[in-house]
Each structure stands twice: as structure tokens, then as C-alpha cells.
Amino acid sequence: MTLVVAAAAGGVYLPTLGAEFVYDDVGQIEIDDYIHNRANLPEVLSLGVLSRDVLDNNRPVMLLSLMVDSMFWGRNPLGYHLTNLLLHAACSVLLLLLLLRIFGRLSESQDGKGSPLIGALVGALIFAVHPANSEAVCVASFREDLLVAFFALVALSLAERFPARRRSVTILLAAGCVLSMLAAVASKESGAVVPLLLLAYWLILRRREQRRAWAVLIGAGVVVTVAFLAARFALEPEHSKILMSKPGHIGGSFAAMLKIQPRIWVFQFSQILWPGRFCGEQQLWTIKHLGLTFTIVSLAAVAAITVWLGRRNPGVWLGAAFYWLALMPVSNIIPIYWAIADRYLYFPMVGFCLAVGAVVLRLLKFPSSRRSAAAVLVATVIVCGALGVITVRQTFVWQSDKSFCTDIIARNPRSYSAYNNLGFIWFDEGEFDRARDSFRRACELAPGWAEPWAGMAITYEAMGRGDLAERALREAIRRDRRFADPPSLVEALIWKQCHAKKLQMIADRM
């Protein structure tokens, strides 16, 4: 079964092996030299990077994984995408093994009735092929979500075997679990909830067991997590060339966020149940069709269904707890840079698939015929086949910056960043008329933004219109003084070196 799940997880993402670097990959892997300099490795391992003005300086495990890729692959995207694919396959297999243990425990509490293997297989296969996971898997710089899920699953798998009969084994299990919790939060801030996942697991399934041992284990996880977060904020650089501003609440205030965030939750859950509106740049326009009344009714319905399904099924409660706890760090309660993104669903999908597997386990708890079990497996194959088709289609969206930007514009014609990025793509291909039109459209959609004006400057320069190039650059500088110093744009990971040099030529002439 592990081979089946691994093959399904890897198979739907095989097209990514031929993909280019896209989105944040360009800045972090192509432009920035930090992960390619082996002299920085001790700084990452010692957590000294927390005080450096480096992209993902607060995610040292994420940086370490990219540095390992760089040692083998340099700037070749194949290796980075291969690592993401293998990580996703590993998460899928870990989920299968964890569900087998949990469902086996649940079956024993139900007098041995149920089918742990079928329930675990259904949950793991859905996780392996669901398109909600595609953004996190397809983009190398979004690997942080894979890493959080991986280390969370390792921690939970070790906790499933805790405590052991032998004291030495118990200590090893506890140490591995605590280190995994530390690795999770050092991969991305959402890993801070892993101790809470462990607490939920203990409360729902094993609260009658050795309370002292579990209190020590969970307490140790909380201590290392809080210690890392404290160091992360204490050592954070006071000024950054990369992140020029702090994130704010969506809607402009905490009160406004409370009205918007429930709509995001409903939209995200609908993406899991009925996938089809995935987009590389989800913005608030995505949820404009969701009224507040509909949102409240939908959330109440989800809560009611969860209560109904969980009456005699602890697995549903556990899955719901995992889902919502994993979603909390990216729910804008604490301001984040992107209010909504498809990749935020990767970690919560563990909880959703756990709940689905638990429902299947409950359905087959009665002495069932082989025919009913076969019907479940056939239904799973059909559902996973449909999901897999959508996932494969999504992998081609992420093949290149051009396919990525084109897809965004098709779904959101008002995406100024997509038009801006597409302008640079046309410029690099020598399609200067198209580049100018794309930059001009970005300027219209975001009049106060400097970058498309600078893009238009180098485009006009390439077209032999130096007067218009200088005028466009002045407009860019008026909006953002950094564009008067093109090398600073490279340091901020905003522009490629080749584009900055062309902009410098215009600046030198002015």
C-alpha cells in the first residue's frame, strides 16, 4: 500500500520535473546567492541566520533544505522540483502509516470492528492527489509547507508509539518528537501549532494514559517552540531591504478582518470539496461572491455535520481539530503578507483526510461484505482519478512564469502584478510591443506602483525611444526612490541583474 500511495503522490506531479523556476523561486534561487554559498551553512545550522537580512531568515530548516539542493543541483530547477515531489510522496506515506495506527486503535476500541487499512488508504490517496496541494508542491520556494507537514507527521507518528515499555525507547521517542516539533516551527511559523496537535491527539484518543509522561512530552514541545519563536522575533533585523513594510490586517483593521476571514475559511473549504478555482494569486476578489449570511450559515452547517459525524467517531473530532489548528496560523488573526493562498491548505489537508478516512472506517465498522468494501475502493479510485486530472492540469500552470502569469490574468484580469511580470517575460523574449502593453496595463491597474514604470523604461530603451525611457524612469523614481539606484533592486531580490543593468544605463544618462 505504501508503494501505491507513493506512486500516486509522485505520479501526478511528474510534469513538475520539467518546470522552470517561477514566482519567489526566481528571487530566492536564481537572483540571491545566499543558499549557493556554502560558507553560510554554519550560520543556518547555528540559527545565526535569524539576525540576517535574508529571504526566509526566520525559516532556517527551509533554507537548509534549499542549500542541500544547491550543493547537488546548483541553479538547475530539476533538482529542486524533485525534492518537492519526494517530500510530498514522503508526507503521503507518513500519513498512510499514521492513519493505520490511529484507525487500528479506533477499531480496537470498537471491539475490533472496522477496516483500518481501507480507511487509511482512502485518506492517504486523497491527500496524495488532491489539487489543493499543488501550489505547495509545484513551487520550490513554497517547500516550507511541505516541511511543516512532514515534521508534524513525524512527530505524531513517534507520539503514536509513546510511551514504550522500555524507558530507553521512551526517551528516544520523546527526543525525536520534540526535535521534530522544533524542526516544524523552524520550517515555517505554522509549525508552532504542532504541540497543540499533539495535545489534541492525547485528549481525544489517549487522555486516560500516563498523564505525567504526556505532560512532559507536550510541555517540552511547547518550550522549544516558544523558545524558537522568541529568538526569531528578538533577533529579527530592525531594517530590511527585502521586506520593506510589515503586514497589516486585511480590510485595514482587526474588526474588518473578523468580517472577511470567515469568508476565506468557507472559500478554502469549498476548494477542498469542489476544487476548481485555484489561482497563483488569490486576492480578496476571490471571495467577493460570498455574502456574510451565506458564510455564517455555511460554517454553522460544517460545524453541525462535524458534530453529527463525530458523535461516535473520535477520528472525525481529531481530523477537525487538526484541520482548524493547522489553518489558524494562516488565518490573518496575526497579520500575514498574503491574506489567502492555495498553499495554505497543504498542512490542514492532513486533518481533512484524517476525518474522511475516519468516516470510511465508521461506515465499514459493521460486519460488511467484500462487495461493500470493494464499492468504497472503486469510489475512491474514481474520486482520486478526477482529482488527479485536475492536479496534473495545475502542474502545467506552474511550468513557467509565462504559463503562471497567463493563467492568473485569465482568472483575474485585474491582477496588476501578473501584467507586470508578463511584461518582463515579453521583454526577455524580444516582444517589446507586448511588453510595453503589459507594463502599461499594470500601471493603469496600480497607478501608485513604481515597478511597471521602470519596466516600461527599459522597454522603451530597447525600442530606441530614449526620451520615453527617461520619462518612464522618472515616474518610477517619483513613486519609489529605490529605482534611482538599480543595484539596490537586485539586493532587494526585486529585479534580475540583467534588467537592473539596462535600467542603470538610462539612469546614468539622466
* Helix proportion range: 55-70%
Biggest β-sheet, characterized? none
Enumerate the spans where pLDDT stays under 50 for 5 or more consecutive residues: none
General form: globular
Number of helices: 23
Brief rundown of the structure:
The chain contains 23 helices and no strands. It is mainly alpha-helical and about 500 residues long.
Describe the structure.
- The chain is built from 23 helices and no strands.
- By secondary structure, the chain is mainly alpha-helical.
- It folds into two domains: 2-236 and 246-397, no CATH class; 414-509, Alpha Horseshoe (Serine Threonine Protein Phosphatase 5, Tetratricopeptide repeat), CATH 1.25.40.
- The longest helix is centred in the N-terminal third of the chain and has 33 residues, at 77-109.
- It starts with a helix and ends with a helix.
